[in-house]
Design the sequence.
């Protein structure tokens, strides 16, 4: 909250789970009473059985950016969903929209004959097949969907020019704490979620008749909580699995963002006062370039 406090800012969420209502503990959503009066946008948007594509997120986030700027405030985008952020800043390829009926058929095919999706893609778009793992059904389905609907290989469609964010200068700040410290932090956070209400939160959701299959309830923490509640896992097993998969996810996040040379990396956690001051110094230097021009 230091940047928001110091810069008359408003926060725009870029976390794919915090966009959902009723998912608080597992998404590490900051409670309203802890937001210091700073407006937060794109939080608690969707019901659990709804879906927000990267394209939809980019449109909503750009609308939020425009609204914040119209008030003379500074928009700060916060979160680690890399695909959402890329869609916002760089735009997406002009690919066709999702076709629910087609996706249902492809999902059923993947259940009956798992190798079929990758085999189809190898025949119709070898370039896409080479970069998508044969077990990554979500990406395979999207690539096949684009190929069929556009009548062109998905790799060609996705290579077309994108419309990036216009009219904004962007400062990117990333946190890179020591790996051992990060591992310990993530392990403690996972355990704390389960011991501080995640099971109760998940049970309350399921008691309303919500099926556990929607994507939000398959996310880290919630998936393991559902397994405990259904008797498929012990609490200890669930915590251990959540810790392992969270560490793996954090590693993938770091790999994703490390590929961006524009990110200013700070060697610590955001809760560290020294890191907060370093981030604030970067922001003030960034803003000074415009106030002096």
Sequence:
């Amino acid at each position: 909250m230091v940047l928001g406090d110091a810069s008359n800012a408003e926060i725009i969420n870029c976390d794919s789970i915090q966009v959902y209502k009723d998912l608080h503990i597992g998404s590490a959503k900051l409670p309203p009473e802890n937001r210091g009066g700073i407006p937060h946008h794109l939080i608690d948007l969707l019901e659990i059985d709804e879906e927000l594509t990267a394209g939809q997120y980019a449109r909503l986030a750009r609308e939020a950016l425009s609204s914040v700027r119209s008030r003379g405030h500074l928009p700060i985008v916060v979160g680690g969903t890399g695909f959402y952020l890329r869609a916002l800043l760089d735009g997406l390829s002009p690919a066709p929209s999702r076709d629910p009926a087609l996706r249902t058929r492809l999902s059923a095919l993947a259940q009956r004959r798992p190798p079929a999706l990758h085999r189809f893609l190898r025949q119709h778009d070898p370039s896409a097949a080479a970069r998508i793992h044969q077990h990554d059904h979500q990406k395979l389905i999207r690539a096949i969907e684009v190929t069929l609907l556009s009548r062109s290989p998905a790799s060609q469609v996705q290579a077309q020019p994108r419309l990036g964010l216009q009219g904004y200068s962007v400062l990117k700040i990333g946190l890179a704490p020591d790996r051992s410290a990060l591992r310990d932090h993530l392990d403690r956070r996972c355990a704390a979620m389960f011991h501080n209400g995640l099971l109760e939160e998940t049970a309350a959701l399921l008691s309303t008749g919500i099926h556990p299959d929607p994507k939000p309830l398959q996310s880290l923490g919630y998936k393991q909580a559902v397994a405990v509640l259904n008797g498929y896992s012990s609490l200890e097993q669930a915590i251990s699995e959540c810790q392992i998969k969270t560490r793996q996810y954090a590693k993938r996040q770091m790999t994703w963002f490390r590929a961006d040379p524009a990110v200013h990396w700070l060697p610590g956690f955001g809760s560290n006062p020294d890191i907060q001051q370093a981030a604030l110094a970067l922001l003030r230097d960034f803003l000074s370039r415009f106030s002096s021009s």
